[in-house]
Structures are given as structure tokens and as C-alpha cells.
Amino acid sequence: MVRHEESVQIRAKTAAGAAEGEERLKMKQIIFATGNAGKLKEIREIMKDTGFEVLSMKEAGLALDIEEDGATFAENALIKARAVCAASGGIALADDSGLEVDYMGGAPGVYSARFLGEDTSYGVKNRYILDKLAQAQEEERGARFVCVIAAVFPDGREETREAVIEGRIAREPAGENGFGYDPIFYVPEYGCTTAELSMEQKNKISHRAKALNRMKEEVLCRL
């Protein structure tokens, strides 16, 4: 017959074991601070060999209104990752990325997602940029995609990784495979826009893929 003291110890051990198991499960999950389906698809493809399950905020049951008021890509990525980590208690990843157009003085830059208004379609944004560069010569059409990936851990540790892909602004939109500014970002090496690349090709050269791979190889694979 189990004595009362032993029963209490067994229940305590069981509860501790369940909590430990829940923590281990949480450690194998990463919540990525995005609601963008196209971005999440890219991220899951890149992360598929890590053993981590990548959840969106919606899948994690988080409804957060995060104000991205940072002055740099890194600041905005950290703002989002910190908020998600604090709300979930688990590992959080976030990115901030954008298009820098030389002819426009580096705009839209950190304001890429909010350029011409948050609710403005990328079709309108892309056309605006093309019209701005209508008279620009090829050597004046230089542009780059910049991405910073931030990781925030429950113990307070924070990591960031940055990557860039250089290219130029196309004359007209082309391609259906990407999202955002992809249809107007021309990559001379491939002779097409990033929206014309296959997922496999894009995940080898894109700014987001490069930054996430650096985070994966240097930080996440060591957990």
C-alpha cells in the first residue's frame, strides 16, 4: 500500500516530468513573428532539416499588435521577436527586411512594408517604383534586398544575423513565384527577377534565406 507521503512524491514527480516534457516540446518549436503566408512557406522550407517545428503567431494562438518603430532592420526584428518570446515563453524568430533602391536614396528601406501605406498593394508599390525609375539608366537602377533575422530565447539571450542580395530594378514586373517586391527585383546572375526563380533557387540566394541559414547554422543547430 502506498503511503500518503509516497503518493505526494509520485504526483510531484509526475507533474515535474510533465512540465519538463512540455518544456522540451516547447524548445523544439519556434514561433516566427509573421502572418505572411509566402514568407512562412519559405521559412519552413529552409528550417525543415533542423528538427524544429515552425509556427506562425496565429498557429501559436498569439494575437499581438506589435509596433515596429525601430530605425533599423535589426531593431524592428528584435522588437517583434521580443514581443513573441514574452507572450509565448518559447523561442521566437522574427525578420525585418526591405528593398533599398539607389536611385531613390535607399528608399523604401526600413519602411518597405509600410511604403505608400500599409494597406497599399504591392502591385501599386511596385508600379510606383518603376515609374520613379522610368528615366533611370541601367547603371542607376542598382538595388538590394536586406534582411535581418532575430532570435530571442526564454533565458533572455538575443541573436541577430544579416544578409543582402544585390541586383537592380527591372523595367517591368515579371514572375509569379514570389511576393512583395520580388517581381521588380532583377538578379543579373540568373537573368530574371526573384519572382521568376523556383523555390529551390530562391532559397539558395535570397537575403532571407542567407540570414536564416546563418542563424540556423550558427545558433539553432547548437541547441
Walkthrough of the structure:
This protein has 223 residues and is α/β, with parallel strands linked by helices. It has six helices and seven strands, in the order H-E-H-E-H-E-H-E-E-E-E-H-H. It has a seven-stranded mixed β-sheet with strand order 2-1-3-4-5-6-7. Strand 6 (185-187) and strand 7 form a beta hairpin. It is globular and about 85 Å long.
Which terms would index this structure?
223 residues; alpha/beta; seven-stranded mixed sheet; 6 helices; 36% helix
The major beta sheet can be summarized as:
7 strands, mixed
Portion of residues within helices: 25-40%
Strand order in space, largest sheet: 2-1-3-4-5-6-7
**What is the general shape?**
globular
- Strand share of the residues? 15-25%
Topology of helices and strands:
Blueprint: H1 4-27, E1 29-32, H2 37-47, E2 53-56, H3 73-88, E3 91-101, H4 122-132, E4 142-152, E5 158-169, E6 185-187, E7 192-193, H5 199-205, H6 207-218
Parallel strand pairs: 1-2, 1-3
Antiparallel strand pairs: 3-4, 4-5, 5-6, 6-7
Characterize this entry briefly.
This protein has helices at residues 4-27, 37-47, 73-88, 122-132, 199-205, 207-218, and strands spanning 29-32, 53-56, 91-101, 142-152, 158-169, 185-187, 192-193. It is of the alpha/beta class and 223 residues long.
